[in-house]
Input
Amino acid sequence: MKLLVCGGAGFIGSNFIHYFLSAHPDDQLVNFDKLTYAGNLENLKEVADNSRYAFVQGDITDLEHLKKVITEHHITHLINFAAETHVDRSIHGGAKEFVLTNTLGVQMLLDAVRATGVEKFVNVSTDEVYGALTLDSLEKFNEHTPIMPNMPYAAAKAGGDLMCNAYYKCHKVPVIVTHCSNNYGPYQFPEKVIPFFVFKLLKGEKVPVYGDGLNVRDWIHAKDHSRALDLLLQHGLPGEVYNIGVDNERSNMEITKMILEIMGFGEDRIEYVTDRPGHDRRYAIDASKILKLGWKIEYTKEKFRQGLTETIEWYKNNEVWVKNLLQKIENEMNSFQKDLNRSQATMPPENK
Ligand SMILES: NC(=O)c1ccc[n+]([C@@H]2O[C@H](COP(=O)([O-])OP(=O)(O)OC[C@H]3O[C@@H](n4cnc5c(N)ncnc54)[C@H](O)[C@@H]3O)[C@@H](O)[C@H]2O)c1
Output
């Protein structure tokens, strides 16, 4: 396989690249990434000199560049992680970049796949396109749940997903769409809840929790997500949608208390902040379709505490990675805060 990984310098993309290179010693990959504020080549410094890895800086909305890279590197498969991913930015900072990358960018990828004859394209999407479930139901999102996004990030992702469906139906482009739940693990940009809280606590600050903290998400380790995507690259059926989740529903408050406890802090470190507009109450995934395909989960619900502890340890032990990011984050957060014209000096703590 000669794989083009779009958006490989971000959180899940870099976890996937590390996993893929070690799981497939005979395969090669090219990482195509625009390097927005969320892209970080430090995530990949251990593989930078690997002869089976190459990096190309590029934008997925640039069709000609995509076609050139696909042709020059004899790409057979493509996986797309490239996206604008921060929900709060899409609400408060303007949604244009979200539509450009998450919808138009996916359409350009579909055009590139169609023009070059790539054998399979996996478009990584999110459970947020389905909208919200209620706290008191046992309902879960399955692949037939209607798409009903409640915030601009998710609406732009849904636009890309619908394009995939249309290109499969009209042009037989061999595309698969995935809807995964909240990820955790190493290399996550600290505007998202777990690294955000860890960094705040390490700096001696309080952690801000939205509203009543009862919003529920299904947390999956990025390694399990990577294994699921790998399985789909090998055995997934073009034209199909696959939901990915590990049945690990946790409220934001539960996550917060677990982080505090693992790091040895008390609940006095919690600070309640005003809820975000359109904050979906609960997401839950029915993953039976991909489980039937043979996906094996390592970090099950029972192993969540272990996965979270390892993740926190990773941030604590990778001081250089953290240090190098701090200035970048400070600049990013300052400019984002300015855009928001907010008096509050905290970034909102929602994942995704
Ligand atoms: N983080 C989660 O919990 C989660 C859960 C489910 C699905 N997803 C999806 O997984 C994918 C990856 O998420 P993430 O959290 O790793 O994101 P991220 O924000 O950490 O990384 C996104 C990457 O895409 C790159 N990028 C952005 N715009 C680009 C463009 N126009 N062209 C090329 N590269 C571009 C960035 O430089 C960055 O490296 C996204 O599509 C997201 O919707 C994320």
Notes: The longest strand covers residues 120-126. The radius of gyration is 19 Å.
